[in-house]
Amino acid sequence: MNEKQREENSQVNPEAKKTEKDYSKYFQAVYMPPSLKDAKKRGKEDVQYQSDFSIPEEFKGLGNGKKFYIRTYGCQMNEHDTEVMAGIFAALGYEATDSTEDADVILLNTCAIRENAENKVFGEIGHLKPLKLEKPGLLVGVCGCMSQEESVVNKIMQKHPHIDMIFGTHNIHRLPHILKEAYLSKEMVIEVWSKEGDVIENLPRVRKGTTKGWVNIMYGCDKFCTYCIVPYTRGKERSRRPEEIIHEVRQLAAQGYQEITLLGQNVNAYGKDFKDLDYGLGDLMDELRKIDIPRIRFTTSHPRDFDDRLIEVLAKGGNLLDHIHLPVQSGSSEVLKLMARKYTREHYIELVRKIRTAMPNATLTTDIIVGFPNETDEQFEETLSLYREVEYDSAYTFIYSPREGTPAAKMQDNVPMRVKKERLQRLNSLVKEISAKKMKEYEGKVVEVLVEGESKNNPDVLAGYTEKSKLVNFRGPRETIGNIVKVKVTKAKTWSLDGEMAEEAIEVK
Question: Region Disordered: what ranges (predicted)?
Fold first, then answer.
């Protein structure tokens, strides 16, 4: 939306029909805290689709001679949001720095999915206070999912007055305006929209590296699982137009990217909000597989929306990888009902059967929560038995912790912490056991590895990932970085593989 449109939007007739929501307030206020009540709403208003983002002339040069630093917490969606904010900073004239000490603007891009992530952010906010006192001209901001929570914003206002600005997940494209207000204002600038969300195209990006790229295909979630804060922090499900996505992927292919990951809070609900065409994730993947890029992944799936069309397209193979992350959360139908997952254990197992019938070599990974309110020992045993039956390659496992504002937070958290920890330990032992078994199968085999760079533990060793997302460490020439090469696995570990370059020549794409 350009400035002329924004002015027109701010002059909405107050007598307009009540069925048409007045969005003008979202462009006027400097102080706009989040509203959990508004964030819970799902109206029938059309998503505002804006394809003409640009930096207004008045803001160009705002960052000349200044540096910015962004610390990112949480998921790939947050990583992608950071790429967009870095693009906006660059367009304003700022330079990136990897140190808070010489930064003129520091942003903490936050995650609200778990209590531990929130605690880390508040710890960092406290650590930044001495630096702020030392450099009064420094701007410190908090953005991302935590900013969409009323309780978080209230806590920052009350206990951390050295924070200069707070903005939410729907406000990233407003960063130039927020920065200018923060420079001019003596008060904390808060702009957190609780509207259901827009789609903003043509946003600048500074991507990390030139090997793997993230591509948002949709935003938000309408599933409202009882434990999850995401539908409130990310808004309603809204999909980007397929032509915009296809264009972006083609650009990445032309720039030499070897792998892209399609992102969405509930990625396989893509297209369900379109009113003018019948088009889903399967249709999009069917078009993307024709683009000359070696690997295409997507995350994260919800079992409710994993349909037969998507399975049919993935089974065509090629550059569409059959490594599928399919969160189950619990193996008990009763617990799944309490979680409002809207599927049963039986439905999930049938979905796994369909996937493996179409793709016999498919690799599945998952998310599991232990200690959900009212989870019994028998129900936890059902989770263990499901894990054994499916034989996931790996899993992200968590102890349940209540998130304020979610329905589960009102349930009695009646599973003692010692029981939660014991269950997590038992689950993790099973995860480790099966992961080691799956990894052992790779010994002696030749795998294709997308080389990402040096190993974190040894600069003389290179590291990369297979199509199945297995980490491989091997010795090889540095010119292989950014390419897909063949590596023979010599040793399997629980979470990674060691190997040596195969005799075949480097495959350059």
Answer: 1-21
The H or E element containing residue 427 is helix 417-440
Q: Which residues contact 305 (CB under 8 A, 6 or more apart)?
A: 266, 268, 269, 272
Query: Final residue of a domain: which of 138, 157, 191?
Result: 191
Same domain, 139 and 254: no
Same domain (yes/no): 435, 466:
no
Could you give the CA distance from residue 303 to residue 199 in angstroms, rounded to a whole number?
A: 25
Domain interval for residue 366 = 204-440
User: 318 and 221, same structural domain?
Assistant: yes
The pLDDT of residue 19: 44
Residues 395 and 312 in one domain: yes
What is this structure's pTM? 0.86
Do residues 186 and 230 both lie within one domain? no
Asked whether residue 9 is domain-assigned, the answer is no
Largest CA distance in the chain: 75
Higher pLDDT, 181 or 117: 181
Domain identity same for 485 and 433: no
Q: Burial, 416: exposed, middle or buried (Cβ in 10 Å; 0-12, 13-18, 19+)?
A: exposed
Token match 């906010």: residue?
125
- Residue 346: CB atoms within 10 A of its CB come to 9
pLDDT digits (tens, 9 = 90+) for 409-427: 999 999 999 999 999 999 9
> How far apart are the two ends of the chain, measured CA to CA in Å?
38
Residue 145 assigned ligand-binding role: yes
**Average pLDDT, stretch 181-191?**
90
Same domain, 271 and 394: yes
User: Tokens 């032309």 identify what position?
Assistant: 254
Q: How far is the C-alpha of 175 from the C-alpha of 382, rounded, in Å?
A: 47
pLDDT in tens, 263-304: 999 999 999 999 999 999 999 999 999 999 999 999 999 999
What is the average pLDDT value for the chain, to the nearest integer? 90
Rounded Cα–Cα distance for residues 435 and 81 (Å): 32
Angle at 375 between CA 371 and CA 380, to 5 degrees: 80
Residue 75 assigned ligand-binding role = yes
Do 450 and 435 share a structural domain?
no
The domain spanning residue 219 has which CATH number?
Answer: 3.80.30.20
